Amino acid sequence: xxxxxxxxxKTILNVxxxxxxxxxxxxxxMELVRDMNVVVTKCWxxxxxxxxxSYLDLLSGTGANGVRIANExxxxxxxxxxxxxxxxxxxxxxxxxxxxxxxxxxLHRNAKRLYALLDQRFGFVDVDPFGSPIYYIPYIYNFLxxxxxxxxxxxxxxxxxxxxxxxxxxxxxMKTVPIDFYREYGVRVLATSIIxxxxxxxxLARPIFGYSKRHFVKVYFEIDVGRSKLxxxxxxNISFLxxxxxxxxxxxxxxxxxxxxxxxxxxxxxxPIYSGKLFDEKFAEFVIGKKEEFSYLKNSKEIFGIFxxxxxxxxxxxxxxxxxxxxxYRIDQIPSLENISNKLKENGFVASRTVFSKTAIRxxxxxxxxxxxxxxPKIKA
Length: 381
Ligand SMILES: C[S@@+](CC[C@H](N)C(=O)[O-])C[C@H]1O[C@@H](n2cnc3c(N)ncnc32)[C@H](O)[C@@H]1O
Ligand SMILES: [Zn+2]
Fold this sequence. Notes:
three-stranded antiparallel sheet, alpha/beta, binds zinc ion, Rossmann fold
């Protein structure tokens, strides 16, 4: 097997040349996610003044994430678990070449059996499978504690984006819809399924940061305990999303509406769906204060771009994709995003771009007010 050394952050990783092509076990495109893990982990320890600084990388592949966490953050111990012997061999090599033997423990187990072996809680648990992390959640709840951070990555994006309704019902126990704001929706679908799975064990998983790009959806959760807190959280944040595929009207509600509040046609209903905040503003502020520390990361600009936009992202729980509106409405020339935002601002609303889409606007304006800012175009069909 021919190896090649790649540098990610401050860490040297050995990966077989063929892995770079096939992207098995090690995927270079996911450096963005690993950079994000480094930033979030390092900051979370300081932000929370975390006592438990142990990290479980449940599905560690060749160790790219776990080894970087051990090397670039102040966690005390990283447990790297992986089922494949080939990947384990490489992880060992990566641990040794970075001199991290004392800071890491290598486990060669089925992640779904690990709970029988490890009777301990972790400050961090990372679940990064091929496909959906939901299958692992029932096997890791015992590893979580109040204050822990759960980091999940999913790559079943077509399902999360509402394009595979049957699969979503089977896999996530959720009714989904194809939608214009699909990247944020994907984050919400994944967040909902994890919140509701953990709630069965009386664990509150509160999203603190969500992102989606290319073929991945990523959500970090702050773990909390206490049943009455959890009940209140679910009551306030688990909703119905009513969506009209004809005119793109949308509304979150406590009861299903089913009829479009704009064109009057039948609306689809997606449920249950998390309608609360995706970002913790105070944590984002804390992270922004540490920006200089992370300037060495390849994806620093993109990651801090997200944190710096958190205040805007939290003004609503959806965004309007202007290109989708142009498809559904008789709009001869799509006004620039700037023009639409200015119009909304003139009318007294907050309007901004969103990190989820380059063709969308996030605003606290109602659907009717947004359509007005588009110049009140007619619906096509
Ligand atoms: C997407 S990769 C992990 C990549 C890694 N987090 C990184 O950043 O490079 C998912 C890994 O999970 C492993 N895996 C799949 N099922 C598993 C199981 N039941 N227990 C442990 N590992 C498993 C696969 O062998 C694969 O290496
Ligand atoms: Zn409608």
